[in-house]
Amino acid sequence: MDKQKVLFTDLGIIDYKSAWDFQENLLRQNVEVKTAARISGTDVNPLLTETEHHLVFCEHPPVYTLGKSGNIANVLLSNDELHENGIEFFRTNRGGDITFHGLQQMVGYPILDLEKFQTDIGIYLRNLEEVIILTLKEYGITGERSSGETGVWIEPEVLGKARKICAIGVRCSRWITMHGFALNVNTDLSYFNNIIPCGIQHKQVTSIQRELGESVDFAAVKDVIKVNFEKVFKVDFL
Description:
BirA Bifunctional Protein, domain 2; about 30% helix; single chain
């Protein structure tokens, strides 16, 4: 069987709301295709439904985002303090709790039709984690999963040393995904001091830069992620 094709878009630096709207539009287009196929009776084979897969890369100016089941108490700044520090805040429709997005953080938003892959959100999340784990391996960093927690960690089982390097939170509608992963590359980690990241206390946040003790080429990290995304999801980019 031919590999699924994925349309790749790099939005560069873009505000969070604009990127969110961009994703919502792609998801809506795919849902409309599925609805039309159902009405016409041509949805018997999901592989033949003309939905499109996308992978969107971007960076966001400083912003805190709260998942739909997140606790606002995990934001440690008032609205006035957020404004004074030039940080935006959004309640989102993704899973997960509070996280930070900022410059030199690699944000990836896959909009995939999982009916053409596997209709299992757990498997999808593990595959996203695997993309990041393979990417970190290229930089000599051992990324791991933490039992019961989504995302990618360094030394997750070592008390006092566990640190998160990549947050993951997604939404799925009619098996179309949106939102995705945020890998700290050369990210200013001081912003995480103003929240309880992902609602998990007593665990640190890290970045590729912090782990290596030096900054890395951001564009090169993007390329490595793309290669590993193709490998894990068995797709080709257009």
